[in-house]
């Protein structure tokens, strides 16, 4: 994308202290909040913003639809993103279409290539594998695209990411502080971006705590509950960990089921930490300690980036990173004195 010196709707939103969709509503007369309108008009004057005539002329040719393509619609982490994305798009007059890719690379490439048919005005894509084919298809998409997930630095596309490697390290360090010394790791597929980064973060955490890397304490499977249960069963059949870090909350729930079925108590005998800090973590028994990767924040940022492009904003690709944090619940013990 070519750089532009024109003030953008993103700058107006920042100056007014509101979202891009709020700016759009105020400028289009779709809000009854006079204070909001006054703030936006003051910000427009302050930054010297002029709406894109090209974007306005194209508005009538738009579909009014935006697609969100993700691995699994049933994953609560993606649902948290949807709960942020959909209201922002709806406020701006867009409908949100959901598409589950099953992490199939060919399916994701076809989604990107089909954008040329203009059945949507924009796309938010959440791939867990990023191939050269993805990067090629993302170079010149037919409509604006925002990617949620880790991309190579050279990728010229708007991108919202998190640091799941650091998040995995937080989980291991928490378990160590709570007295665990044989910390197992149950991961998803090793050939995925989250699988690779979370495994690296697990090893970072072990090194930071002065613990040896023991491959017998590591299991790989899928990112689903059933895969977590089966992986934990294999793990418990060969070794005795005193803690399990799972690469997402679904895996953690499956692991907790296997641990209890084996007659082991949580957290007294085996502590468990998940990742994503979904609503499932709050409602599990016992409630699950989990690393938040800011799913809601990532969804909101992605929607804002896409809306800016849909309003004609140009300029270099933007990149935003949401920091991980740990939410401690009853599946782990208090830190050792």
Automatic annotation (TrEMBL):
Q: Does the keyword Cell division apply?
A: no
All residue ranges annotated as the HTH lacI-type domain in the record = 7-60
| Alphabetized Pfam families for the sequence | LacI, Peripla_BP_3
Q: Which domain of life is it from?
A: Bacteria
Coiled-coil segments on the chain, per record: none
- Keyword Transcription belongs to the record: yes
Which molecular function terms from Gene Ontology are attached? DNA-binding transcription factor activity; transcription cis-regulatory region binding
Q: Where is this region: Disordered?
A: 318-337
Q: Which Gene3D superfamilies match?
A: 3.40.50.2300, lambda repressor-like DNA-binding domains
SUPFAM superfamilies membership: lambda repressor-like DNA-binding domains, Periplasmic binding protein-like I
Q: Which UniProt keywords apply?
A: DNA-binding, Transcription, Transcription regulation
Q: What is this protein called?
A: LacI family transcriptional regulator
Give the source species. Answer: Phytoactinopolyspora halotolerans
């Amino acid at each position: 994308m070519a750089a532009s010196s024109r003030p953008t709707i993103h700058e107006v939103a920042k100056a007014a202290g509101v979202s891009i969709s709020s700016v759009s509503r105020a400028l289009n007369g779709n809000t009854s909040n006079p204070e909001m309108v006054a703030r936006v008009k003051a910000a427009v004057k302050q930054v010297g913003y002029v709406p894109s005539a090209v974007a306005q002329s194209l508005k009538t040719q738009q579909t009014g639809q935006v697609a969100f393509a993700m691995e699994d619609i049933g994953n609560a982490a993606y649902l948290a993103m949807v709960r942020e994305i959909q209201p922002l798009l709806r406020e701006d007059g867009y409908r949100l279409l959901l598409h589950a890719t099953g992490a199939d690379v060919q399916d994701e490439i076809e989604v990107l290539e089909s954008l040329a048919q203009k059945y949507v005005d924009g796309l938010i894509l959440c791939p867990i594998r990023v191939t050269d084919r993805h990067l090629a298809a993302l170079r010149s998409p037919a409509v604006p695209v925002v990617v949620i997930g880790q991309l190579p630095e050279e990728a010229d596309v708007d991108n919202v990411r998190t640091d799941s490697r650091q998040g995995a390290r937080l989980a291991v360090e928490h378990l160590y502080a709570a007295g665990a010394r044989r910390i197992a790791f149950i991961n998803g597929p090793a050939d995925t971006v989250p699988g690779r980064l979370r495994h690296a973060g697990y090893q970072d955490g072990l090194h930071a705590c002065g613990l040896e890397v023991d491959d017998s304490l590591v299991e790989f499977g899928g990112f689903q509950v059933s895969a977590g249960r089966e992986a934990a069963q294999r793990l418990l059949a060969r070794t005795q960990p005193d803690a399990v870090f799972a690469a997402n909350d679904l895996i953690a729930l499956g692991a907790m089921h296997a641990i209890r079925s084996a007659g082991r108590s949580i957290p007294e005998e085996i502590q468990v930490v998940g990742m994503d800090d979904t609503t499932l973590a709050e409602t599990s028994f016992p409630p699950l300690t989990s690393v938040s990767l800011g799913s809601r924040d990532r969804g909101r940022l992605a929607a804002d980036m896409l809306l800016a492009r849909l309003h004609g904003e140009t300029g270099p690709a933007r990149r935003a990173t949401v920091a991980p944090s740990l939410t401690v619940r009853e599946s782990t013990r208090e830190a050792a004195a």
